[in-house]
Specification:
The complex is a heterodimer of chains A (about 130) and B (about 80). Chain A is built from five helices and five strands, in the order αβαβαββααβ. With about 130 residues, chain A is α+β, with helices and mostly antiparallel strands. In chain A, strands 4-3-1-2-5 form a five-stranded mixed β-sheet. In chain A, strand 3 and strand 4 form a beta hairpin. The radius of gyration of chain A is 14 Å and the shape is globular. Chain B is α+β, with helices and mostly antiparallel strands and about 80 residues long. Helix content of chain B is about 30%, strand content about 25%. Chain B is globular, with a radius of gyration of 11 Å. Chain B starts with a helix and ends with a strand. Classes of the chains: A alpha+beta (about 130), B alpha+beta (about 80). At the A-B interface, strand 4 and helix 4 of A face helix 2 and strand 3 of B.
Chain lengths: ~130, ~80
Amino acid sequence: MSEAPTNPMRDAIQSAISENPVILFMKGTPEAPACGFSARTVAILKTLDQKFAAVDVLPDPRIRQELSSLSNWPTIPQLFVDGELVGGCDIVTEMFESGELAQALGVEDGEAPAAPQPATVQAAPLGIENRL
Amino acid sequence: MSATNDELKQRIEAGIPGARADVTGDGHHFNAIVSAEAFRGLPRIAQHRLVYDVFGTELGDRIHALSIQTREPNQ
Protein backbone atom coordinates (compact mmCIF):
# COMPACT_ATOMS: atom_id res chain seq x y z
CA MET A 1 0.00 0.00 0.00
CA SER A 2 1.85 3.08 -1.19
CA GLU A 3 0.86 6.58 -0.37
CA ALA A 4 0.21 9.01 -3.17
CA PRO A 5 3.26 11.21 -3.73
CA THR A 6 1.15 14.35 -3.61
CA ASN A 7 -1.74 15.33 -1.46
CA PRO A 8 -3.65 18.14 -3.18
CA MET A 9 -6.06 18.61 -0.29
CA ARG A 10 -3.30 19.00 2.24
CA ASP A 11 -1.43 21.35 -0.09
CA ALA A 12 -4.55 23.45 -0.63
CA ILE A 13 -5.11 23.74 3.12
CA GLN A 14 -1.48 24.65 3.71
CA SER A 15 -1.60 27.32 0.99
CA ALA A 16 -4.82 28.76 2.36
CA ILE A 17 -3.24 29.03 5.83
CA SER A 18 -0.10 30.65 4.43
CA GLU A 19 -1.88 33.06 2.15
CA ASN A 20 -4.51 34.37 4.53
CA PRO A 21 -3.30 36.30 7.59
CA VAL A 22 -6.48 35.38 9.44
CA ILE A 23 -8.33 32.24 8.43
CA LEU A 24 -11.05 30.29 10.17
CA PHE A 25 -11.87 26.68 9.39
CA MET A 26 -15.46 26.20 10.50
CA LYS A 27 -18.66 24.25 10.09
CA GLY A 28 -20.91 26.20 7.77
CA THR A 29 -20.27 29.75 6.63
CA PRO A 30 -19.91 33.02 8.55
CA GLU A 31 -23.43 33.91 7.40
CA ALA A 32 -24.85 30.50 8.28
CA PRO A 33 -22.70 28.72 10.84
CA ALA A 34 -23.68 25.07 11.23
CA CYS A 35 -22.43 24.65 14.78
CA GLY A 36 -22.60 26.73 17.94
CA PHE A 37 -18.83 26.76 18.45
CA SER A 38 -18.21 27.99 14.92
CA ALA A 39 -20.95 30.60 15.37
CA ARG A 40 -19.38 31.91 18.56
CA THR A 41 -15.94 32.15 17.00
CA VAL A 42 -17.32 34.06 14.01
CA ALA A 43 -19.21 36.39 16.35
CA ILE A 44 -16.00 37.19 18.25
CA LEU A 45 -14.09 37.99 15.07
CA LYS A 46 -16.94 40.20 13.93
CA THR A 47 -17.01 41.95 17.30
CA LEU A 48 -13.34 42.80 16.82
CA ASP A 49 -14.17 43.98 13.31
CA GLN A 50 -11.60 41.49 12.09
CA LYS A 51 -11.57 40.52 8.44
CA PHE A 52 -10.97 36.84 7.94
CA ALA A 53 -11.06 34.14 5.35
CA ALA A 54 -13.37 31.26 6.12
CA VAL A 55 -13.39 27.65 4.98
CA ASP A 56 -16.39 25.42 5.45
CA VAL A 57 -15.13 21.93 6.33
CA LEU A 58 -18.49 20.25 5.92
CA PRO A 59 -18.74 19.79 2.13
CA ASP A 60 -15.86 17.29 2.06
CA PRO A 61 -14.82 15.18 5.08
CA ARG A 62 -11.26 15.12 3.77
CA ILE A 63 -10.86 18.82 4.57
CA ARG A 64 -11.33 18.18 8.26
CA GLN A 65 -9.23 15.04 8.16
CA GLU A 66 -6.26 16.71 6.48
CA LEU A 67 -6.61 19.89 8.51
CA SER A 68 -6.56 18.05 11.82
CA SER A 69 -3.62 15.94 10.78
CA LEU A 70 -1.74 19.07 9.70
CA SER A 71 -2.60 21.16 12.74
CA ASN A 72 -2.57 18.36 15.31
CA TRP A 73 -5.87 19.75 16.60
CA PRO A 74 -8.90 17.48 16.68
CA THR A 75 -11.84 19.84 16.70
CA ILE A 76 -13.51 22.48 14.55
CA PRO A 77 -13.41 25.50 14.44
CA GLN A 78 -9.71 26.28 14.10
CA LEU A 79 -8.42 29.83 13.86
CA PHE A 80 -5.04 30.57 12.28
CA VAL A 81 -3.30 33.92 12.49
CA ASP A 82 -0.16 34.52 10.44
CA GLY A 83 0.09 30.84 9.65
CA GLU A 84 -0.09 29.70 13.28
CA LEU A 85 -2.93 27.86 14.95
CA VAL A 86 -4.37 30.10 17.67
CA GLY A 87 -6.90 27.55 18.84
CA GLY A 88 -10.51 26.54 18.78
CA CYS A 89 -13.60 28.15 20.20
CA ASP A 90 -12.59 27.78 23.86
CA ILE A 91 -9.18 29.38 23.44
CA VAL A 92 -10.48 32.10 21.12
CA THR A 93 -13.18 32.92 23.68
CA GLU A 94 -10.74 33.02 26.57
CA MET A 95 -8.27 35.14 24.60
CA PHE A 96 -11.04 37.48 23.53
CA GLU A 97 -12.16 38.00 27.11
CA SER A 98 -8.61 38.65 28.31
CA GLY A 99 -7.75 40.99 25.45
CA GLU A 100 -5.06 38.64 24.15
CA LEU A 101 -6.93 37.99 20.94
CA ALA A 102 -7.05 41.65 19.95
CA GLN A 103 -3.35 41.76 20.68
CA ALA A 104 -2.65 38.68 18.58
CA LEU A 105 -4.65 40.18 15.75
CA GLY A 106 -2.93 43.52 16.12
CA VAL A 107 -6.14 45.45 16.70
CA GLU A 108 -5.51 46.66 20.24
CA ASP A 109 -5.52 50.31 21.20
CA GLY A 110 -7.51 51.29 18.16
CA GLU A 111 -4.47 50.83 16.00
CA ALA A 112 -4.90 50.14 12.35
CA PRO A 113 -6.13 46.60 11.95
CA ALA A 114 -4.03 44.01 10.20
CA ALA A 115 -3.38 44.74 6.58
CA PRO A 116 -6.45 44.27 4.46
CA GLN A 117 -6.51 40.87 2.90
CA PRO A 118 -6.39 40.64 -0.82
CA ALA A 119 -9.24 38.80 -2.40
CA THR A 120 -7.84 35.37 -2.92
CA VAL A 121 -8.99 33.24 -5.75
CA GLN A 122 -8.88 29.76 -4.42
CA ALA A 123 -8.84 26.70 -6.58
CA ALA A 124 -11.07 23.79 -5.75
CA PRO A 125 -11.42 21.76 -3.61
CA LEU A 126 -11.25 24.35 -0.85
CA GLY A 127 -13.80 27.11 -0.85
CA ILE A 128 -12.29 30.20 0.70
CA GLU A 129 -14.55 33.04 1.48
CA ASN A 130 -13.08 36.41 2.24
CA ARG A 131 -14.92 38.54 4.70
CA LEU A 132 -14.79 42.14 3.60
CA MET B 1 -22.62 3.80 24.65
CA SER B 2 -22.52 7.42 25.61
CA ALA B 3 -19.87 8.83 27.87
CA THR B 4 -20.43 10.08 31.40
CA ASN B 5 -19.05 13.07 33.27
CA ASP B 6 -17.41 10.71 35.75
CA GLU B 7 -15.72 8.72 33.02
CA LEU B 8 -14.27 11.85 31.44
CA LYS B 9 -13.12 13.17 34.79
CA GLN B 10 -11.40 9.91 35.69
CA ARG B 11 -9.73 9.57 32.32
CA ILE B 12 -8.40 13.12 32.34
CA GLU B 13 -7.09 12.72 35.87
CA ALA B 14 -5.50 9.37 34.99
CA GLY B 15 -4.10 10.60 31.69
CA ILE B 16 -2.46 13.84 32.83
CA PRO B 17 -0.07 13.69 35.78
CA GLY B 18 -1.42 15.60 38.76
CA ALA B 19 -4.57 16.72 36.97
CA ARG B 20 -7.81 17.66 38.66
CA ALA B 21 -10.85 17.86 36.44
CA ASP B 22 -14.38 19.10 36.89
CA VAL B 23 -16.59 17.80 34.13
CA THR B 24 -20.16 18.72 33.37
CA GLY B 25 -22.17 17.55 30.42
CA ASP B 26 -25.23 15.84 29.01
CA GLY B 27 -23.64 12.67 27.64
CA HIS B 28 -22.75 14.29 24.33
CA HIS B 29 -21.57 17.83 25.00
CA PHE B 30 -19.11 18.21 27.84
CA ASN B 31 -17.27 21.00 29.57
CA ALA B 32 -14.07 20.24 31.43
CA ILE B 33 -12.20 22.57 33.74
CA VAL B 34 -8.79 21.03 34.25
CA SER B 35 -5.92 22.10 36.42
CA ALA B 36 -2.61 20.29 36.32
CA GLU B 37 0.97 20.81 37.29
CA ALA B 38 1.82 19.45 33.84
CA PHE B 39 0.32 22.62 32.33
CA ARG B 40 2.77 24.94 34.03
CA GLY B 41 4.66 27.07 31.58
CA LEU B 42 2.90 25.62 28.54
CA PRO B 43 1.02 27.78 26.06
CA ARG B 44 -2.73 27.38 26.31
CA ILE B 45 -2.86 25.51 23.03
CA ALA B 46 -0.44 22.88 24.33
CA GLN B 47 -2.44 22.56 27.54
CA HIS B 48 -5.60 21.88 25.54
CA ARG B 49 -3.76 19.35 23.36
CA LEU B 50 -2.85 17.36 26.47
CA VAL B 51 -6.53 17.09 27.32
CA TYR B 52 -7.60 16.27 23.77
CA ASP B 53 -4.91 13.60 23.59
CA VAL B 54 -6.59 11.69 26.43
CA PHE B 55 -9.54 10.99 24.13
CA GLY B 56 -8.02 10.80 20.66
CA THR B 57 -10.46 9.80 17.97
CA GLU B 58 -13.36 9.54 20.40
CA LEU B 59 -13.64 13.31 20.10
CA GLY B 60 -16.30 14.31 17.63
CA ASP B 61 -17.51 10.73 17.67
CA ARG B 62 -18.46 9.14 20.96
CA ILE B 63 -17.70 12.40 22.75
CA HIS B 64 -19.53 14.76 20.47
CA ALA B 65 -18.10 17.99 21.83
CA LEU B 66 -15.68 18.83 24.62
CA SER B 67 -15.13 22.38 25.79
CA ILE B 68 -11.96 22.85 27.79
CA GLN B 69 -10.69 25.44 30.22
CA THR B 70 -7.21 24.80 31.54
CA ARG B 71 -5.58 26.25 34.64
CA GLU B 72 -2.24 25.95 36.28
CA PRO B 73 -2.67 24.91 39.94
CA ASN B 74 -3.32 27.82 42.31
CA GLN B 75 -4.31 30.01 39.43
